[in-house]
Amino acid sequence: MKNIKSIVIASVLGFSCISMVSCTKDLAEINKNPNSPEIVPTNLVFNGANRLLFDNTRDGWWMARMSMPWMQYSAQNNYVEEDKYQYRDVQTNNGWTFLYRIANNYKDIIEKCEDPELAKQMVNYGDIDNQIAISRIMLVYVFDNLVTHFGDIPYWSYGQRDNPNFQALNVEEHLAPVYASQEEIYADMLKELKEAAAQLNGNSGFVAGDNIYDGATASWKKFANSMRLRIANRIKKVYPAAAAEIQSAIAAGVFTSNADNAIHASGTTSVEGNPLWKTYFVGRRSDFWVNKSFMQLLKGETGNFGFDHRLYKIAAPKGLTFKQYDEVGYTDKTDMSQYPGMPYGLPTVEDYYTQESNVNYFSKDILNIKRGEVLMEYSEVAFILSEVNNWSQSEYIKGVRANLERLNVDPANIATYISKLPAANERNVLTQKYITLFFNPDEAWNEYRRTGYPDTQILLLPGETGTRPQNGSTYVFTPLQSGNVIAKDLPARVRYPVTQQTLNVDNWKKATADMGGDEIDKKLWFAK
């Protein structure tokens, strides 16, 4: 049996060589817990990995202090330096560690299902092929998160285990794994998604523990195809084979309605509740407020769309204390002055905005213990289809309608909004896609780096003048030094964890050299 303790230690420390990893057989025996089963059922591993994934990427650290404010969905009133790109290295260190730990859990499911003896037990938790295929899909989801944040990374592939460039998640053979190139990773992720979709059969997936599709393999197949469409569309400018991948994914069957949405369900306890809800109501943090830039777009003050009733689904009116918001509640207001938003990138912390009644909480729909976390939704697929079909008007309208319906906007208001939509073009489609991606800000960040949208019509970019809504006074949005640079645009990436500079130094140096430096202004492969 593999030394699971060694793997976990390596995961926490970034899959790098330290003396602690070389546990002896005797030490492994000492570390056994006689009251805990050594073979954890695969459905429990899957459930736990998914929960860990969203608790550590949609919480008050990874998402809420990087992509969510950078894409100006939110703004902070206390740690304004993070909004100005001076994030804390501990955020990326922890994110890297957790994402590799989660990937290792999906790999563990695959290994249990492939073991002839263990498979006899694991089949009780779902069809073996389907468990493997679903784990492959989630591995791509995790590695996509890593490669879009950092660039070249240590990578593992189910279908290319012997590839010398794919050394991650194999601490017994590769204590200091090489960093695979982004181009090679993307090509393999597309291959993995295609093969995983083909591997899925009509039997059940996980019989329990699947809080995304409840074991429905037909839905998992559509998700794999839709993710392949997303990734191929992202890299089409730099990857000649992407055009064929796009058409192949569409032909294989992508999302066609909100019924297909990939959403990880949240529970009703402080453990299983929505990660952002836990940030506010368990962690008792109230640092994050609806951004003025996003609020202006929804109010129709910027952009080309007029008033958007999604405003009420995303923001609460100002004037609320935490106690009022939590215990009394609120009613929506027609007076738009009640929705000023938090100005983004202020020079310093300002007392006025530290008073919670002067800014806007996220709505009760957002800060809801039971709100599920979106991996991908039909609206995004429709916008991609609009783009690949020369900015198709019909797909554009389908995308807008799907998101409005998913948020339970009143049908009459949906009809009015859609009747006034400007024609589909690059700006309008991608700006509507930006609104949809509020629930997936990492992907919104990917889209900005790929397309430059939303542009300065919506976002406050470095060097531009912002306005304080309470008195009309102005300030210049000036990013702070992050690493060794001051960014002139949104961050192009985040720096590698500082632990890699000691635990995997040679491979870190090579990856850094290949990317032109370990700084936030170094563009990733797909964005060049």
Describe what this molecule looks like in 3D.
- The chain has 528 residues and is mainly alpha-helical.
- It folds into two domains: 236 residues, Serine Threonine Protein Phosphatase 5, Tetratricopeptide repeat (Alpha Horseshoe); 201 residues, Serine Threonine Protein Phosphatase 5, Tetratricopeptide repeat, CATH 1.25.40.
- 47% of the residues lie in helices and 4% in strands.
- The protein has 23 helices and six strands.
- The strands form three sheets. Strands 1-3 form a two-stranded antiparallel sheet. The protein has a two-stranded antiparallel sheet with strand order 2-4.
- Helix 3 runs antiparallel to helix 6, helix 4 runs parallel beside helix 21 and helix 17 runs antiparallel to helix 20.
- The longest helix is centred in the N-terminal third of the chain and has 26 residues.
- The protein is globular and about 70 Å long.
- The two termini are 45 Å apart.
Blueprint (SSEs and pairs):
Blueprint lengths: L3 H9 L12 H6 L11 H16 L5 H8 L3 E3 L3 H4 L5 H26 L1 H7 L5 H23 L31 H18 L17 H18 L7 H11 L9 E3 L10 H7 L6 E3 L1 H8 L10 H5 L7 H7 L22 H4 L18 E4 L1 H11 L4 H14 L4 H9 L6 H11 L4 H11 L13 E3 L6 E3 L23 H4 L1 H11 L13
Antiparallel strand pairs: 1-3, 2-4, 5-6
Helix pairs in contact: 1-6, 3-6, 4-21, 6-8, 8-9, 8-10, 9-10, 10-11, 17-18, 17-20, 18-20
InterPro entries: SusD-like_2 (IPR041662), TPR-like_helical_dom_sf (IPR011990)
Keywords: Lipoprotein, Signal
Protein name: SusD/RagB family nutrient-binding outer membrane lipoprotein
Features of the shown structure:
528 residues, mainly alpha, Serine Threonine Protein Phosphatase 5, Tetratricopeptide repeat, 2 domains, two-stranded antiparallel ribbon, 23 helices, 6 strands, 47% helix
